[in-house]
Amino acid sequence: MANRLSNNPFVALFGSVEAAERYISLRESGLLRLLEYRPRAERKVVANENRGVSNDRRLQVETERPVFNEENSPRDMTKGIETCITDCSSRITEELKKTGIARLTEEIFGFTVNKVVDEGKNLIFLEDLASEIAPKNWIDMEVLEQALFQRLLLEEPSTYLLNKTVNRLERSDNHVTEKEVISYLFECYKRLCSPLIPKDVKEEEIEEVKNLILRNAATALRQPALFEAQELHLQIINLFRDTSAPPEDFINFFTGISEQFVRDESEPINVLLEAFAPTLDFIQNDVAQSNIITFNRCYLHILQTFSVSPELGAVLLLHSTPKETSHGRLYADTLIGSILSLSCLPKTPNGPYEFFQDPLQSPDIEGANIWPALSFICENMHKIFYNLLKSSTQLKHETLSWLANCLHSNSARGKLWTAHNLGLGAPACVSDGFMLNLGCVLLHLCQPICSNLNDLKVNRIDPTYCAVKVKDDAEAHYRGVHMKGLDSETCLIPIAEDEQRPTAEKYSFVTECFFMAHRALDLGFRVALERLMQLYREVTQIQRVFVEVQEQGSFQSEVVQTIRQRLEREMTRCFSIRAALLEPHSLSLMVQFHVATAVWLVQVATDATNETERISFVPAKLREITFPLPEQVPSTLSCVPEFLIENTVGFLSFLRRFNPRTLEEQGFDFLSPILTEVLVFMGSQQRMRNPHLRARLAECLESLLPHHKENPAFSTSSYGGFFRERLFKEHPHRNQIVRSLLEVFVGIEMTGQSVAFEQKFNYRRPMYVVMDYLWQIEEHKDCFRQLAAEAESNMEAVSPPIFLRFINLLMNDAVFLLDEALSNMAQLRQMQAARDSGEWRQLPTHEQEQNEALFQNTGMIARFFWVSFIILTRNLRFHVQTGVRMTSDD
């Protein structure tokens, strides 16, 4: 028993271990209970008789003395014993409670008011408090708050350490002597949530201690002057550098601090912002000076912790909101904006390119390092925005307003001149990297509606969203419409001035997120892609000039050096933009998003039932598409912006040029909805009035070809073209491809506008390539023959048949192309003769460069017209032969 009691803390209530053993023996025998609760007068007599007697003898006498007298019957004594037992138990429980809190104080806070402690412990002795509460030498709940506050004010806690030998000081717990306030309180909070808590401490007492820790942390942040020698904001950041603590501890600790502010302050958000502004400012400044590789990743964990709490999330969003929300560039100068600006692209329009600095020697070897960093940023920023959106209803509204204002204030990025201004971009707008990252975050938010098309989540999107224009913030909150300026966008079909477009009363988050993601792609991915294509054209021209100048060897070396420097500069830009666009995870998200868009658009285009009686315009059910399409055209198409289609066209063209394997990796299920979308809108002028946009859908068909004869490098893929070949042979609506192509081909000529031939031919060039491929498949060749037969039988019709108009335009184009090709070849011959004769060598350097550039440009134009003429005449030969065979019954 002695060994058992030696480690029991309650032995301290007795004089020695032996006394505790005798106490337990008497309790077990029942004698002590009778002895303790005899009448007070009788106990005094016993005490007087036992004076001068040894303890052992006194105990023997007391146990042998009878406990009953004439005044106390057994029944009364039993009742008295029960009452006294209850009273004794409460007294013992109070002593145990005091001991449990004292032990809790030592384990959690590392301080004491008892100067005598076990030699194995290192504790801080609170001398001032010990003298105040003497003779009590333990800490209870009444004095714990005072004790903790005194401990926090100690500038050098190690000087108050008990058992302070050299060896013990080296082995002491760093938490006990911690000087940093926030670090110390957070460690106390962690320990309070650990198994170190004594089992005899009640749950409500633990909760009270927890609130005490949080209250002191809130006080420190609210009144940092109390700890002026400490940098509290750095202490908060340093907490997250140590990843040993579970994320729940960080979240609960800082959420608890924010709740303390809510209880104590009338305007908690403003006070919280003032308290945490130094931390957020430090993070923003540090990120602004870092790049995508060197920035501190723990900052994202800090922001995620803030985003979970409604109050701290509001602080984060308020800190990241510029004073002038209409100035797009200012969003990049906020905390969230500085993180979104982290990319392999410059943070500002005129900023430097930090990667791919030696493109001629080591081209494109840094992408492997850039892609994981880009993916990490987008995934973690998605978590931050997701937490903000689900934290509270009000914070969700404020977050959507932030996103909508950011997109609207940067709408100038979508202007035509932006993509062609390579040096400046849009100075008043955010960078390409910012908008690409924001688009990726929104794609993450859209992923639940895109990952599984069979669960009909995509049908929850209301097509009339973009027709709504709200008056104020309250209406935006009520109706769920935060985007601005979409009501002025060009839509798929026009509407008369006296007509009103259909709108719903309210819109869901799914609808808002869908259109926000498309708007971000329109302002980000599309603009960056156009810039990349222009850079590639310039790099190609510079490469030709550089090679020719090197081969001639007669030009001055400084000219060669100048061209080389420009070539390296443009290639650095190309590789940087391409790396940002080819990030694998973003590509995967975009594939799913565009497939979901294709499915939804096709459903909207065929959903025209009971429009006047509907309060919501989401597609009611998943309809099976059949051709010919219904004659009734849904008026909801007048609310769908054209940039939804343009985003899909641009994405497929990008995949064809830079990553064709993605088309095969996604399989037939990805390709089939895309082709259905192309056929529905390309072949139906009533559902898409813009002939230029319908013509651009031919680029989608070209991108879906399994091979590309004119540019085989664009279609090389280790996956081959199996699924793309299946698309043209097994798609349920494949017989509509030929007719839709001819309708678009002829429709370009019937725009009613003055359109230059070069522009029309740029639209028709991919159509020639697709027709060339279709002619090799017997089933599609039969479609051409059927159209030729219809033309032959309706030669005298008032409205010429589609095939007859197509042949006529094809011959006109062939004549024009041949004439332009010969004209440019003649100019090219004259320029070649002048260069070979040495005339250019006598000109200044800059004029020599201009002549070389003009020579290369003329050669490219001549080659373009000549190759186009060959492609066109091959198609013309096929189709004329088709008509001849049909005429001669061949």
How would you explain this protein's 3D organization?
- The protein has helices at 2-6, 17-29, 31-36, 40-49, 55-64, 74-109, 127-133, 141-152, 166-171, 181-192, 203-222, 232-241, 247-264, 268-288, 298-308, 310-319, 335-340, 367-391, 393-409, 416-420, 432-450, 473-479, 509-523, 525-552, 557-581, 584-605, 643-658, 661-665, 668-682, 691-703, 712-715, 722-730, 737-749, 757-774, 778-793, 802-837, 845-887, and strands at 111-112, 124-125.
- It is 63% helix and 0% strand.
- Among the domains are: 2-89, no CATH class; 96-230, no CATH class; 319-532, no CATH class; 775-890.
- By secondary structure, the protein is mostly helical.
- Helix 27 runs parallel beside helix 30 and helix 36 (802-837) packs antiparallel against helix 37 (845-887).
Keywords, separated by commas or semicolons:
890 residues, mainly alpha, two-stranded parallel ribbon, elongated
Describe, in short, the structure shown.
The chain has 890 residues and is mainly α.
List the helices and strands and how they pair.
Elements: H1 2-6, H2 17-29, H3 31-36, H4 40-49, H5 55-64, H6 74-109, E1 111-112, E2 124-125, H7 127-133, H8 141-152, H9 166-171, H10 181-192, H11 203-222, H12 232-241, H13 247-264, H14 268-288, H15 298-308, H16 310-319, H17 335-340, H18 367-391, H19 393-409, H20 416-420, H21 432-450, H22 473-479, H23 509-523, H24 525-552, H25 557-581, H26 584-605, H27 643-658, H28 661-665, H29 668-682, H30 691-703, H31 712-715, H32 722-730, H33 737-749, H34 757-774, H35 778-793, H36 802-837, H37 845-887
Parallel strand pairs: 1-2
Helix pairs in contact: 8-11, 10-11, 10-12, 11-13, 12-14, 13-14, 14-16, 15-16, 15-18, 16-19, 18-19, 18-21, 21-23, 21-26, 23-27, 24-25, 24-37, 26-27, 26-29, 27-30, 29-30, 29-32, 30-33, 30-34, 33-34, 33-36, 34-37, 35-37, 36-37
